[in-house]
């Protein structure tokens, strides 16, 4: 800096330097005060009674209780198990509500953010966070739901080895169209014990996440609650085909076709598995499984003395749902028919052999 020319200028010069120094100290002090910003406190996760709809709450750090020049904001991070990634949002609020899968871990983090006059308009976020991980209870209890023919849903559960004999189970369910969780409309009993729930009188929505809770009580005290979630269109079990048709279309082809199950099942969503049991004229037996997307099958046929037997089962394909159950196997149909004496099926031949062997052993026992 140039040397001042007189005393007045000299005083003004040093006054300016002093003022500049004060500004630098104040600015540095503001930034220093929040260099170690504390995270929020009292992070809590509350169940709203909707089986997975959780309310997350927290308080500002106690070090900011007297803060007036800056209103704190918060960065909330939680793991979305439906999308399998972290969700991040910023909010001035101290509460947030969202849906979690209660059958999986709930992982939440919250940071404090300051930005404004108190930080010289520089955004500062706490390095540490308030964090919580809630793990679902493990009871060793199996739970399965089957949507029979897309008409009737049944859910069942098993009692674990630790379940007291006097235990009484309850099932509650919730989806986004309900205000609160609802109890099972009709329990399935086995030996006077609740083993499942029938929803025939209360249909549930498809392509919607539905949350279930199985809890209960006993003389020894309350049972641990178990949570499950699913979409019912992924639990379909089709009725076994019962109208089978088997015939020869010519001397060289055998045609096997069947009808789709009755009901609201979309025909284009069905896939089929055929079990083909073949007995050749030489007595050689083969068993094949054939997959098809059409309710018909044509096979080569060369000799009327050979025997072909078929069974079929079906399920919804992966183009329409994420998963489904195979139906039971249909009854067996054969060519030639069961009244024919040509090449009897394997189980008939085996039965005859057992019968002959039994008679032979009885004769031996009488002799000796």
Describe what you observe in this structure.
The structure is a single chain. With 368 residues, this protein is mainly β. It folds into 3 domains: 41-134, Immunoglobulins (Immunoglobulin-like); 143-236, Sandwich (Immunoglobulin-like), CATH 2.60.40.10; 239-351, Sandwich (Immunoglobulin-like), CATH 2.60.40. 13% of the residues lie in helices and 40% in strands. The protein is built from 2 helices and 24 strands. It has helices at residues 7-33, 346-367, and strands spanning 41-47, 53-59, 73-80, 85-91, 95-99, 106-114, 124-125, 130-134, 143-148, 152-157, 168-174, 182-183, 187-190, 193-198, 210-218, 221-230, 236-237, 244-248, 253-258, 270-279, 285-292, 296-300, 307-316, 333-335. The strands form 6 sheets. Strands 3, 4, 6, 7 and 8 form a 5-stranded antiparallel beta sheet that branches. It has a 5-stranded mixed beta sheet with strand order 13-14-10-9-17, with no helix packed on it.
């Amino acid at each position: 800096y140039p040397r001042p020319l007189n005393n007045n200028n000299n005083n003004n010069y040093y006054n300016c330097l002093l003022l500049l120094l004060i500004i630098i100290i104040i600015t540095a002090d503001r930034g220093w005060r929040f260099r170690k910003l504390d995270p929020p406190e009292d992070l809590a996760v509350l169940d709203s009674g909707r089986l997975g709809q959780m309310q997350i709450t927290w308080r500002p750090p106690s070090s900011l209780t007297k803060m007036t020049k800056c209103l704190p904001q918060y960065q909330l991070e939680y793991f979305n198990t439906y999308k399998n990634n972290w969700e991040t949002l910023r909010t001035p609020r101290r509460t947030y509500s969202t849906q979690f899968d209660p059958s999986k871990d709930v992982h939440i983090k919250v940071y404090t953010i300051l930005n404004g006059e108190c930080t010289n308009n520089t955004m500062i976020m706490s390095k540490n966070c308030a964090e919580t991980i809630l793990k679902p209870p493990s009871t060793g209890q199996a739970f399965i739901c089957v949507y029979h023919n897309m008409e009737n849903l049944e859910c069942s559960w098993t009692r674990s080895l630790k379940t007291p004999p006097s235990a009484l189970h309850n099932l509650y369910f919730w989806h986004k169209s309900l205000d609160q969780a609802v109890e099972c409309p009709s329990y399935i009993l086995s030996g006077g014990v609740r083993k499942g729930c029938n929803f025939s009188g209360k249909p549930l929505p498809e392509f919607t996440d539905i949350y279930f809770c199985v809890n209960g009580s006993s003389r020894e005290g309350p049972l641990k609650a178990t949570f499950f979630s699913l979409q019912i269109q992924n639990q379909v079990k089709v009725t076994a085909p019962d109208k089978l048709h088997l015939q020869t279309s010519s001397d060289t082809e055998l045609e096997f076709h069947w009808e789709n199950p009755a009901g609201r099942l979309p025909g284009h969503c069905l896939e089929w598995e055929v079990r083909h049991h073949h007995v050749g004229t030489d007595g050689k037996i083969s068993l094949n499984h054939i997959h098809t997307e059409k309710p018909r099958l044509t096979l080569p046929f060369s000799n009327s003395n050979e025997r072909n037997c078929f069974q079929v089962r079906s399920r919804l394909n992966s183009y329409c749902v994420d998963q489904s159950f195979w139906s039971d196997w249909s009854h067996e149909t054969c060519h030639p028919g069961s009244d024919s004496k040509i090449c009897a099926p394997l189980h008939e031949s085996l039965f005859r052999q057992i019968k002959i062997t039994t008679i032979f052993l009885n004769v031996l026992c009488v002799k000796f």
